[in-house]
Amino acid sequence: MRVITGSARGRKLDTLKGSDTIRPTSQMMKEVMFSAVQFLVPAARVLDLYAGTGQLGIEALSRGAKSCVFVDNSSQACKLIHKNLERTGLDSLSRVINNDVFVFLNANRHNYDLIFIDPPYRQQCVQRILPLLNRLLSSGGMVLCETESQADLEESYGALELKKKYTHGTVAVWLYRKAKGQDEI
After folding, report:
1. Helix axes 55-62, 27-36, angle to 10 degrees
2. Per residue in 45-73, pLDDT tens?
3. What is the DSSP string of 4-34?
4. Distance CA 12, CA 85 (A)
5. Which residues contact 58 (CB under 8 A, 6 or more apart)?
6. CB neighbours of 103 closer than 8 A, spacing ≥ 6?
7. Coil, strand or helix at 109
8. Fewer CB within a 10 Å sphere, N or C end of the chain?
9. Domains in the chain, CATH or no CATH each
10. Given its phi and psi angles, is residue 139 left (phi above 0), alpha (psi -120 to 50 degrees) or beta?
11. Rounded distance, CA 83 to CA 117, Å?
């Protein structure tokens, strides 16, 4: 697994060996995701939920994002994210939080321009998280969710509107956008 482009282009990222809990996003799906949000990334404030290896947030930082907050409830994953951030030289632009995603979201008061959600499959996490993002996502901001392809998500969650669904094999990526000028819902 490598960073695709930007300041850390080509840098190899570590994964947890022998771990079933972290399922890194495939290189192809990562390219699809970043192609969809390429104009939003520069100077964006990014939130990477269920961050795992940190590869999505690191890719955003490498492409010019202003900052990234990584959240994962696994202390092993958080150590790995720190290691990958140091390896890419992007640690000064980030914060790694070892906490439950729902606890973090309920306590957080910051706004983000781009949010990644890549939870364990078949746990209905995304359906419960998306409504919580209305107050955290900036006007015009985007959410990218990676799920199993047969997941059943709504067309909208408050001000978040589904713009596109990309499917490849057993994986789906859902792109939601908060319309410009939308206040907290």
Report:
1. 50
2. 999 999 999 999 999 999 999 999 999 99
3. -SSTTTT-B----TT-SS--PPPHHHHHHHH
4. 11
5. 3, 8, 13, 68, 84, 85, 88, 90
6. none
7. coil
8. C
9. 27-178 (3.40.50.150)
10. beta
11. 21
CB-CB contact of 5 with 63 (8 Å) = yes
Length, in residues, of the chain: 185
Phi, psi of 184, deg, nearest 5:
-55, 135
Could you tell me what percentage of the chain is helix, strand and coil, using 3-state DSSP and rounding each to the nearest 5? 30, 30, 45
DSSP strand pairing (67-72 vs 94-98): parallel
Q: Identify any residues that bridge with 117 across adjacent strands, giving them in sequence order.
A: 49, 145
Q: Which two tokens stand for residue 185?
A: 């819902």
User: pTM of the prediction?
Assistant: 0.92
Whose tokens are 């789906």? That residue is: 172
> Please, is 83 exposed, middle or buried when counting C-beta atoms within 10 Å of its C-beta (0-12, 13-18, 19+)?
middle
pLDDT in tens, 31-51: 888 989 999 999 999 999 999
Structure tokens at 46: 């990014």
Residue pair 16/98 in contact (Cβ under 8 Å)? The answer is: no
Helix spans in the chain (H): 27-36, 55-62, 75-88, 101-107, 125-129
